[in-house]
Fold these 3 entries.
Entry 1:
Amino acid sequence: MKSLISLLGVMTVLGALAGCQNLGVQPWERDLLAKPVMTPGAADGLDDALDDHIYFSKEASSGGRGFGGGGCGCN
Amino acid sequence: MKKMLDGKKIGAGLAAATCSLLGQPAMAQDSTDAWQFDSAVLYYSEQDRVTAVEPVVRAKKQFQDESELEMKLTLDTLTGASHNGAITSDKPQTFTSPSGNSSYQVTNEVPLDDAFKDTRVAANMQYTRPFTRNLRWTGGLNFSNEYDFTSLGLNAGLLWDLNNKNTTLTFGVAHEADTIDPVGGSPVGLTFQSDEDKTDGSEDKSINDFLIGMTQVINRRWIMQLNYNLSVSDGYHTDPYKIVTVVDANGDPLEAESFGANDIGAGDAQVFELRPDSRTKNALYWENRYHFNRDVLAVGYRFMSDDWGITSHTLDVKYRFQFDNGWYLQPHVRWYDQSEADFYKESITASELTSLQNSQGEVSADYRLGNLTDTTYGFKVGKEWANNQQLSLRVESFTQSGDSDASELDALITQVGYTFYW
């Protein structure tokens, strides 16, 4: 199961990468994308880290957005 | 303390980003030379249970050579009570405190251990530096300490810009070493709480994380991120403060003395939980951000599965209404659903205990490992000024619901944030 998911993950990324060559914008078309609100992981300031900490200690899941380690004795 | 790789940044430097805030004209103040400070205080309050106050400050600076340094300090104070793992029963149940120095009795309520009190300090540092036009490396250190727990972590990663910086690939590894030093010692799993069978000395856990991610610009309005995260941990995963109730055929708590253990009161057949000594988690995360004429929609989805039998889905949606003069309102909805771990049981019978003891099998009644559905909804309101200062308030309601009474939980999340440049 683990290796299957790993393989799927890698294939998804590679497949998407190949298909992505025709996507995107020119440098002068980045007016909207340059805003912090359009930057995944940084758009909401400290909210993501605080949320990850709350939900890590109340649920059995972690990771995905970043590393899934804990750094917390809460679970 | 989940240190994120800063691989989400697509091309545009901090200068461009801060100058084009809300599409306003470039600011008179040059913030490229300044440190950016993000600060927040989180107030998290569960009904009848835990209350946490968590101030955070993060300082960030981009240097002339386009390298970036980020430092974060978090303080976390916890007070209140948390579920000890036992069933909710109309018969009295007797428990010992974690230190073993006192006992308490609960009837008709979710059994809570009210000795829950801790202060956590966490420090993170991350440095990212370009070494070719399209490649950056990043490295970071994490440290956190609380009364019975210490964690030390480091991470390293590579960020690779492709397709005219419309694609960024992220590769990251992280290692974390945890030391757990439970109050009163580490209990021997599956022994009776009334016997206080505990070992001195600390327990260890190590976690290795791998992350591969891709951020892709779809068009002028749409950006997407896809991450795969593998997390492998080895060592002590048991919660030393959680127990499992041994029940009779009617589901009522049994007596410890009937198993030859110490008698500390009624309904004291409570055994310490025991979890596997390793865990492998796989997580896929997919985030989309779409910019309408003024507003922004963000949709995130995570799928996680692990070798404990847990599978979870998380959906996170935010919509930012952008108003004049830098004001915004951002409603937020989060939905989470998980299936139970293979060794989760709300309670066990005497014969189940015997077979677990004979096979050194695992069992936990921690509701966080059971079937669970959580919803969070709320909003954030904020204001950004021309000098890039920002002030925000977030208010959210968090509800948990699962198979047991202990899983029914309501909490309030309140957060005040302030960003400035210095």
Entry 2:
Amino acid sequence: MAENARSSEGPYLRLTGIAKSFGRFQALHGIDLAIERGELVTFLGPSGCGKTTLLRIVAGLEAQDWGTIVQDGRDISRLPAIRRDYGIVFQSYALFPNLTIHANVAYGLVNRRKGRSEIERRVAELLKLVGLPDSGAKYPGQLSGGQQQRIALARALASAPGLLLLDEPLSALDALERLRLRGEIRALQQRLGVTTILVTHDQEEALSMADRIVVMNAGRIEQVGSPRAVYETPATPFAADFIGKINVLPGVAAGRDRVRVGGRALLLARNDLIEGSAVKLYLRPEDVVVHRDPATGQGAANTLAAQVAKVEFLGAFCVLGLAPEGTDFPALSANVPRHAVDAGGLEPGAHIAITLPPAALRILG
Amino acid sequence: MTQFRGTWWHSVASAVAAAGLLASGAAFAQKTELLVYTALETDQLKAYQEGFNKTNPDIAIKWVRDSTGVVTAKLLAEKANPQADVVMGVAASSLVLLDLEGMLQPYAPANLGAISAQYKDAKNPPAWFGMDVWGAAICFNTVEAQKQGLPKPGSWKDLQKPVYKGKITMPHPASSGTGFFDVTAWLQMWGEADGWKYMDGLHENIAQYTHSGSKPCRQAGAGEFPIGISFEYRANTTKASGAPVDVVFPVEGLGWDLEALAIMKGTKKLEAAKKLADWASSRDAMELYAKNFAIVAVPGIAKPLPNVPADYEKRLVKNDFGWSAKNRDRILTEWNKRYNAKAEPK
Amino acid sequence: MATAATASAPGPVAAGRVVRQALHWQERLALALLVACCAALAFFLLGPLFMILVKSVQDKDGAFVGLLQFRDYLGTPALRQSIFNTLGVALVVTGITIPLAFTFAYALTRSAMPGKAVFRVVGLTPILAPSLLAAISFIQWFGNQGLLKPLLGGTPVYGALGIVISSIYATFPHALMIILTALLLADGRLYEAAESLGTRTLRRFFTITLPGAKYGLVSAAMVVFSYTVSDFGIPKVIGGNFNVLAVDIYKQVIGQQNFNKGAVVSLILLLPVLVAFVVDWRMQGRQHAQFSARAVPYVARRKPWFDGAMFVYCTLVALLLLAVLGMAVYTSFIKLWPYDKSFSLRHYTFGLVDGGVIVSFFNSLRMAFVTALLGTMFIFGCAYLLEKTRGMPGTRALIRLLASIPMGVPGMVLGLGYILFFNHPDNPFNVLYHTLTILVLATVVHYYTSSHLTAVTALKSLDGEFESVSASLKVPFYKTFHRVTVPVCLPAILDIGRYLFVNAMVTISAVVFLYSPDTQLAAVAILNLDEAGEIGPAAAMATLIVVASASVCVLYALVTRVLLTRTQGWRRPAPGN
């Protein structure tokens, strides 16, 4: 995008101590965050977690009570929205219904007193960029939701802003359109190299699009990291639970490297536990190793007998509801490929064995 | 839409400009504007104004018109800060009252000498002078009379007959000058005790007390209530409009008052006010009054009107404006106490 | 946003002072305009009302007398009687109008009878006429020379009876509109569910229809009640010797020129209207939960017996309504009621034009035009600033409150307040006294609430992020206002304009104290003509008003239709939206 080389050092956007309350409700508790140039960062969290408020504060559409925002080396904390440098796309598209697509995209350009031919060129370029080169004469009402959101994106990018803010841009679309646009936005963002913040409550969207994910809950940041890091090594129980499914196994440390869960001692890939302390083990369902033969690995560490309680078909894979046998070990679920279920032996009621790999058992928070 | 959006701003701007012009109204040229309170009938105002402007084109009259009672109340209420410059065509009994309150500016208009003594203030210069006499008349609907078997009344006393129950309307004395002179005439003619007794009887037959002196005759003309106690000008116009009414002048005598003119004390436009007074006393003006009334203040001008008897002036009761003015409040209070329940609004 | 943080949550983490965003000059401009709107509303609404309060506790010379005048007033039996008369008539009118209007609205929404569009239009026609027209027309129908006099069985039409029937006519369209809206909003899915459960029609009516329309019914009842209590034209013309409060104010103020007594009666009149207003307001507050955004409109199916009955009913009501209007028009065109019923234009030519009374009709047109134009601009502009800009929450709350008050203030009370306030020598705005401007101001304020609600509803239906998008695109708010907000809201804006125009043409109570010799209005002229017994010209003037109002409505319908066709492209809803 344009020469935004005001400051090439340090992060492109730095939020420090951002706090905001609405009346007696504290929406944000001192948020600190740095976003690098060209990065796509998603704010992910349940509704009410403060992610949209944070985005609107970055845009200047809300004023924070405390804290500073530095964009590209410039302190914009107190700047009104109209003085900041960003483009924004909303869930509702917010296209002007009475203006043509062309006029919508050119809306901000006209006001910048650009030459007519320059505007024409830029609009054509943007419409091509979003894959709707021939829609200029149409009205928003004549386009599908996905097409409208593409136009909204083109409008937001028209003046080549340094920062692109996307507020749940895909939530109003149907599943298919959502998937397609997800890829398109990411590709476009990478091609233009524009620093982007995407607000979403959809973990899949966050995982598939983001360079980094900021997991938020109740006005605080729970974790910041790459999609892989956030998924594989969630920093907090909330992060673990919100992103993907996870089994929670409460237990008591039985040594520096093992935890007793319901009468079974499970080996962990660490040795810093204090014996006797209560801990919770977290285990992704896809990390559970399933053995069709109940005799497999009898007596081996972390392997136990279990009965299949139910099988939930989820398309590409199936979720097994498992009831470990014998001691009062908590129920857990395991993901297995569909063809593994098709091969038989995992029907409800079947007796099997499972292994909980030490490296996959984590203690969080 | 594209052509439209560029221009709606402009169309609104021009519409607002137009609205501003409309709201401000056409600006008057450098004319002196005279605020004149009046109880004259609306259908008379135009002719008088045109007549005056023929000789005084540089003075514009702004009329505030209402019934005698309302104009009187308004003038009294504004006593501390009078708005009107001139009062024209308001009952002499009301002007005497204002004079007693010290609100009038005495002035001898140009043609004062020609005006009959009994139709002007006795002082010199007079506080007020009369324009014309308007007096009582009864409108009697002949068609309804036949249908309902009503005999034609000849006297005030006839109206007390039970046969007329609910058939008569008369103007409210508090709001209508006509209503007020009816009441004062009865009281002066027969004395207070007999006068009130008469009204007690009449009240039994009254269907409505109306706000204006014209309405009873109009209602009689439309057969809504076949007998209306009104005044001769309205009786004449109603008959002329084709309504089946006979005009009755009760034999005992007719209540009357003067449509009179006075200048308000403290007016900032005294010169213009004097000009209006001069014109109103002039022969030209009197000729205009004579088109509507059988008696005007300058003798020898009035021509006989259809439906008005030649000896009309002789039938008028003796009317003491001073007495009427001084007792106005007392009479109205007493009247309200006795009959207000049947009064038409206001 | 319901998460862990509660009142006991820890304070803000970061050190330092509270951040205050700098205001762009455009934001300052918006806030300045907002404050100006608020100030104007407060000045032109609260100022006059405040003066009424002041005057009611003063004597004629301005000395404080406390509640003495109230005691005086309540001590006069005839005046006390007015209170009972007023409330009694209003209750009877409400009790009759609401079922009449409800059945009519029910037929329009729940039956498959033919001619619904025509019935709807006819049902709303009384709105075009000043309330005086109804009174005059009923005198012609039921007066001593009336064709239908025998129907009354000897009861004279002058008095409570006349007031009641005239008021029913005048309030019918107001009730009809509100109830229609309520019934149209009802969720068709409820009926489908009920039908699939085999619920019987009568039971459906009592379990779904009535509860669904409950708030609409209450609202309509309150509007009818307030209208009847506040209306002055009807009792003035047909009330005969039956005293009501609105006419008492008139008597005190005009007849006696006793403004202080007038203020006292005003406050007594204000009370029941205020109660109705508050009841309605609280009911409306509870209503929102009732309608889900996904409600499906109900589509009536043919039921021959029911449809037939409804058709007969609506035809009957429509004929009655047209008979009232028709009688007034007829009266204006005949030579001499009731003796010479030949066609004549003399009430127009002789009665109005030669008499100079016609000027007041042009005054009314002028006043209505200015009111519609400037009123619409102010009301919509103010609603826009209120809904679409940010900052100053206190001022916004105040504007919302002020905008809802006029609905609860009878026109006579407002009008009296206006004279007291603007005739005051210390008021710098007293130059407005006796101008057309003051009539415009009083009319705009009088009809503010409905117009404001129309504007707010239209604005709320716009995407809430238009302004955010504009800011992000560095486009000033006023540019988006004129390029997007106004064009998209144009139907609502025209609707407000039409509403103000029609009401300005017929209003009498708010302006009867305010007109001057140069600014007499048509509706006031009708009143004066009636007082002089000139029924023909009065009917002619009423007819002119109806023609003018109807023309504006037709014009509105045409313009709206053209607009909608021209903008069909963008108004067609997006698939799946």
Entry 3:
Amino acid sequence: MSAIDMMGPPQKSGSVLGWLRRNLFSSIGNTVLTLVAAYLLWLTVPPLLNFAIFDAVWTGETREACLGEGKGACWPLVWANFGQFIYGRYPESEIWRVNIVFALGFIALVPMLIPSAPAKRFNVIFLLVVYPLIALVLLAGDRPGLPPVPTSEWGGLLVTLVVAVTGIVVSLPLGIVLALGRRSSMPAIRMLSIIFIEFWRGVPLVTVLFMASVMLPLFLPEGLSPDNLLRCLVGVALFSSAYMAEVVRGGLQAIPAGQYEAARAAGLSYWQTMGLVVLPQALRHVIPGIVNTFIGLFKDTTLVLIVGIFDVLGQVRAQLSDPTWTVPQGALTGYLFAGIVFWIFCFGMSQYSSFMERRLNAGRGR
Amino acid sequence: MGISWYNPRVRSIVYQTGVLAAVIAVVWFFTATAQENLERLNISTGFGFLDTTAGFGIIQTLIPYTEQSSYGRAFLVGLLNTLSVAVIGIVLSTMLGFVIGVARLSPNWLLAKIAAAYVEVMRNIPLLLQLFFWYFAVLRPLPGPAESIEALPGVFLSNRGLILPDPVLDAGAGMFFGALAAAAVAGFVLVRWARARQRATGQLFPALRVAAALIVVLPLLAWAIGGTPFHLEYATRGDFDFSGGVRLLPEFVALVLGLTLYTAAFIGEIVRAGIQSVDRGQGEAAAALGLKDSTTLRLVVVPQALRLIVPPLTSQILNLTKNSSLAVAIAYPDLVAVFAGTVLNQTGQAIEVIAITMAVYLTLSLATSLAMNWYNARIALRER
């Protein structure tokens, strides 16, 4: 019996050429696809890079710097109005208050997001109860040493974050109550929850905001007229509660019936069963869903500009009609900037959401 | 168990009565306050205003409408504009979404990465911002009619919108479209017959190919016999405007473009998840049974993937319909812009107008979910 010659390693696998051949040029069809894709890239990426970086104007004091043939993005427009994009028309002498609110929120949020950080319970209570109160006092003022700042002067990223954070702070508890109501054995409570949830999920946010700004004042007693931002916050909070309720319901459905039965057998009451056994498990399951709802809410905050409140996008848009910075590429520059801001926030959150998803599934993988 | 607090029946009735009473009290309070306010402000209630003359123009009307038409007519115009954007958006975004979802799973590295980048960019930027971008930064700064861009023969892009050639029917039209309809019906019957025969006898018949051939050949025959079915009338470019052709407003183009590109990113993710969820063993088993790749895809992979795709696809379709209300921000005359915007401002009938608008969206949502639930029930897994 003669030995067969040993086979060499498959040719070119592992080398760059082999990789190219396998992933890009494995067949005629694949090659055509690669060429089409490369053409698409060539059409979009170089013009974008040229506009945003290579041909862009980076320094300058006035609009004159951005005028002229072949100039790209007018970044001085953004630098000059950066304060407005972040704080709106918040009085300059009081901006430290906004900065404290931003910093406090950041400091409290970081340990919340790190799964191994201790004292989650206190952290949650701080973020959902204490922090909103501190923020309210600091931002609105009207306390000794804090002159009042009417909400009509708030704007930019501040308003975006106020609307988004209010939405999540209200919608989380309300959504949990609604989700429990929808799974309740009491028909009246179940019906009411279903009607509430399906109503808000069936109408667009724009109509909700219209309702909040035009229709709501008619339903309140004379003399009690909350300002425009507060009315919109109510609308956004109720709207997002309905979506949050559906996310939480998904988590509740994922808890096996044995958990309920065991809790009942151990003599726990309904609220003990939910609070000690079911919700802690269900909520942990739906953290990615909650983060995704928050991303949707964060993007939806832009809609408040339709009823005359200036969030980041509203501020950018208002700036574009300012004659001191009228340049042909102004709209592109402004929307590119706003797009980058939103993208960073939303992409960051979605990466966190998928990190949590992987973490939650880690035990279940094989 | 008698009437005692420890009887769960009793407790449940007490709780429910309490909650119902609270809800009724709140509703009653708001209604009473509203009535008081309306009387104080001298606002009449009721839907009588719908018959009043509107007195404002609308830039896109699918049904005859003039400034002398009523508010009710304006409502219909807005509703049709919403529906046209929604339907076109749904069709385009579903097609693009499937392409992106499949592209993300492509063995071609470059294509998969481009699709992934597309999804990550599009779904992380607010739709309203994208609409502003398309409308204010791309379409509005386009040159006027005289310098308009001729993308294809007869297709012009300018700040007046997108101008397309107008198809005009000719003498052969009746025969042509009749042949097309006949071919479609014949193809449908043929496919059903072939399937029934295969079930009964196991014999195969290339029904799909024959049906496709019918749909191509029959209309062509009609064309040859009856003459041309239609011809395209090209728009002519003037200094200030175009004459002839079909005009799509820049607002309409921006809205359809924005909604489609945004929603397609979400649909792409749904399609990818659906396809990935089909177990690899399913494809291998089909191959082991000797099915061709295309047959495996059609009979094994797609039906199972669709089951997971349809429910979230439904909510994306609903989202697109609801998101079409962002039209108000770029002044496309949809239902919200025309009715909850202009009509509300002119009449001051806030409660009626908002109630009607919300009722329309609720009805659209309900109708879409019912249709999709019916489809979902048809393709759902039938277990023993």
